[in-house]
Amino acid sequence: MPKLSNLILKPIYYIYERRLYSQIKDGPVPKHVGIIPDGNRRWASTNSLSFEEAYSEGYKKLKEVLIWLLDLGVKAISVYALSTENCTKRSTQEVNVVLRYIKKGLEELLTGDLIHKYRVRVKVIGKLSSLPEDFVQLANELMKVTEPYHDRKLTLAVCYGGRQEILDAMRALLKDIERGVVKLDSLEEDVFKKYFYDPELEDLDLVIRTSGEVRISNFLLWHIAYSELFFADVYWPEFRKIDLWRAIRSYQKRVRRFGA
Fold first, then answer.
1. Of 67, 78, 25, nearest to 248 (Cα)?
2. Is 140 a catalytic residue?
3. CA–CA separation, 226 and 220 (whole Å)
4. Which of 4, 25, 78, 119 is the most buried (most CB within 10 A)?
């Protein structure tokens, strides 16, 4: 039998969710939203669960949030799925668990109808050479299948680091300068961006990070330069629609100056 507190709280939550939505529905929607889904392990510890159960719940939450954003009209979503630091500093067992759920997500995107319903182009960026071959093959297949789509975009950063991307871009650029392909005095931002993992990735409008941590952790450093930041004080598996609506409401109240 449901607890009395749940019977009372659910209607209150629904009313509050609808009220928040009414406040944002006619306002500007960020074109490109970045997500740093932090706090899976701490959520597991708080609830006496294994880290594998934490990532399982985190995976389910990501699928849910993607649909919320797509239905809201967001055109591009970038997710910090696994950082370079996570790939190199966490245990092999934990990294394998995370990669397994990312791979599961790629497989579901490839075989399901979500990408076709919303016409989502998928890109996977990062140090893919350090990932298992079957993972890379799956990612490449999904990217090829969704290449014709241009309505929406989903970018998954896997074994990714913003500093590493900029260094890799600089190395490639210097080689082209040495070969005479690029002239140093013609170097502009648009030229430099061509050497990024995804040259077409646009700047982020809003970045949402969960778990209460107030930092960006090397996520898309170039693209985050003029982003609005929102830090939600909940662990990722607990992230609710009202938390997303609060982030959008906060974004709509800000005056974007782009460094001016």
1. 25
2. no
3. 12
4. 78
User: Of the residues 26, 71, 86, 185, which is catalytic?
Assistant: 86
pTM of the predicted model, to two decimals?
A: 0.94
Beta strands in the chain (DSSP E): 32-36, 76-83, 120-125, 152-160, 206-209, 228-231
Each residue's pLDDT tens digit, 94-137: 899 999 999 999 999 999 999 999 999 999 999 999 999 999 99
What is d(CA 143, CA 132) in angstroms, rounded to the nearest whole number?
Answer: 17
Active site residue 38: yes
Q: Tell me which DSSP letter residue 233 carries.
A: S
| CA–CA distance, 188 with 211 (Å, rounded to integer) | 37
Catalytic-role residue among 38, 40, 205, 218: 38
Pairing of strands 228-231, 120-125: unpaired
